[in-house]
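Input record (one chain):
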Amino acid sequence: MPAEQAPKRRATSGARVQAQPSSLQDCPVARTLQLIGEWWTVLIVRDAFAGKTRFDQFRRSLDISPAILTKRLQALVDAGIMVRRRYNDHPPRDEYLLTDSGRALRPVIAALRDWGEQHFGRAQIEAEEHERAVACGGAGENAAKRAQ
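The corresponding structure, as predicted from the sequence alone:
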């Protein structure tokens, strides 16, 4: 069966994940991406490094639906990247803290941020606007100045 048609299975968090061919199951990059490669998961970990620990903090910061946030947090707990700890009994409230394994992701998140700033950050956007202005004989330059 081709990889793109591999059967899907349920993760312990209830999320559907693509079953991987045996050649990818042994690849550390593929296994890591399967665990943390989902958009919201990386952003939750990023916010945890910024000091956020509570459901409502993640929800406000990310503007994420409660259902998706619940699933992503549970997947992070299931994977051992975060641990859930009760901080209030009435009403029951939990916080989510990075484990040693989760904290070890700091250089990965930093590398993603650095790469994004280099390739998609403000300096890159301004450089591209300047290139367009030069290519258009200055017409784009005037538009770029007006936008500032």
